[in-house]
Amino acid sequence: MDFLELIRRHWFLAGTMVAIFCAEIYPELGAKEGPLNPEITVKYGAISLIFLVSGLSIKLEELLVAVTNVKIHIFIQFYSQVFTPIIVKILTLFLWMVGVNEWILKGLITIGCMPPPVSSAVILTRTVGGNEAAAVFNSVLGCLIGIILTPFTLLFFLRTTTLVPVFSTIFQLTLTVVVPLAIGQLVCFVTDFKASSYPIGILGQISLLFIIFTTFCQAFLSQDMQMDAHDILTTILLVVLILMFLTWLVFWISSKMMHSFRPEDVIAIIFCCTHKSLTLGIPMLRILYGGYAHLSTISLPLLVYHPTQIIMGGLLVAYLQDWMISRQRSRFEKWHNSIYEAVCGESRSMNLKPVD
Q1: Cα angle at 63 between 58 and 69, to 5 degrees?
Q2: Fewest Cβ atoms closer than 10 Å to its Cβ: which of 107, 117, 156, 188?
Q3: Percentage of residues of the chain with pLDDT beyond 70
Q4: Which helix (H) or strand (E) holds 98?
Q5: CA dist 197 to 57, 95, 181, Å?
Q6: How many CB atoms lie within 10 A of CB 3?
Q7: All residues at 6 or more sequence positions from 340 whose CB lies less than 8 Å from its CB, including other chains
Q8: In terms of pTM, does the model score above 0.70?
Q9: What pLDDT, on the 0 to 100 scale, is given for residue 356?
Q10: How many helices (H) and strands (E) does the chain have?
Q11: Which comes out higher in pLDDT, residue 303 or 245?
Q12: What's the CA angle centered on 182, arms 180 and 184, to 5 degrees?
């Protein structure tokens, strides 16, 4: 595989690296109150464009089918908002015994309690070719459930809680998710728009790269981390290991449940179950620990987790595509053989050739 073919296959990962590099060179450009004004361009621009593209790409019947797929909704929401906090809490108990900073551990628990974000899981699912409709529905559903559930999980695991601005959060979700999605569906219905005829998927991926750029701009510009290098490196290592473990675990569990989930469903499950919301988490931490000297320490794990989940997602895109295609081919072969047996009374192998 030559260099150009490697870039073409992993272009989203390459774009992520370029976005991070540019953010380090000129962080003022994409930081808060900077020239790009991410408070508006990200929140109401990039995210809205992601869901407008979803509205133009997803057929209405696919979205309705996704809504009625109760098994995948229960699995994703339980894993993300119940199972993950428990697993992370158990891990932090072991880490506490080996002397890891208490406030870093509180930050890790906070990650586990957060609901999924509304953008990155959708884009990565679409990029791989997974069940985008299920990813859209569960991202929105997860945020709505998180508004109610997250304060209780924080109270249970950290013995502290806060009020979530319910109405403003629902209004923002409606404005940036529901409205663009509905507009996309309306355009398809009125004009008979064919998403396959236009390269609109690239718009959503570029929007996510813009979100990555502004996220790292803010991270590189922030100078309030009152921690030593040991704490910072420990946090980064723990976040990466926890994310890798949660991703492997959900993939292992869901891929063993092929009687309930298609390969496309597994892709949506992987991203929706492991991605966590930064936009809800940071304001909640500032409310909870605004008067504490350890605010930076407890916030760092979530700040690290957010870009890490996107980078890891970019690394997994090509491999998950290969896995999904091989599983789809295997399922089709089994279906074909069962039909052939029923009609002809004997088994037959299709001997399908690999798809380039």
Answers
A1: 140
A2: 156
A3: 78
A4: none
A5: 11, 52, 19
A6: 7
A7: 346, 347, 348
A8: yes
A9: 45
A10: 17, 0
A11: 245
A12: 70
Cα gap 258→255, rounded to integer Å: 6
Question: Which tokens belong to 276?
Answer: 């966590």
List Cβ neighbours of 217 (8 Å cut-off, separation of 6 or more).
23, 26, 27, 28, 29, 30, 31, 34, 38
CA distances from 250 to 78, 272, 312 (A): 11, 10, 15
Asked if residue 153 lies in contact with residue 85, where contact means CB atoms within 8 angstroms, the answer is yes
- Residue 107 to residues 79, 153, 309: CA-CA distances in angstroms? 19, 13, 16
The pair of three-digit structure tokens given for residue 63, joined into one six-digit string: 């979205």
Amino acid at 224: D
Instruction: Return the residue matching tokens 């605010």.
Output: 295
What is the separation of C-alpha 167 from the centre of its chain, rounded to a whole number of angstroms? Answer: 24
Q: Identify the residue whose tokens are 């047996």.
A: 341
Q: Report CA dihedral (301, 310, 112, 214) to the nearest 10 degrees.
A: 50
193-205 per-position pLDDT tens digit = 776 666 676 787 7
- When pLDDT is cut at 50, 70 and 90, the band that residue 293 belongs to is low
Integer Cα distance of 100 and 52 in angstroms: 43
* Tokens linked to 72: 């995948």
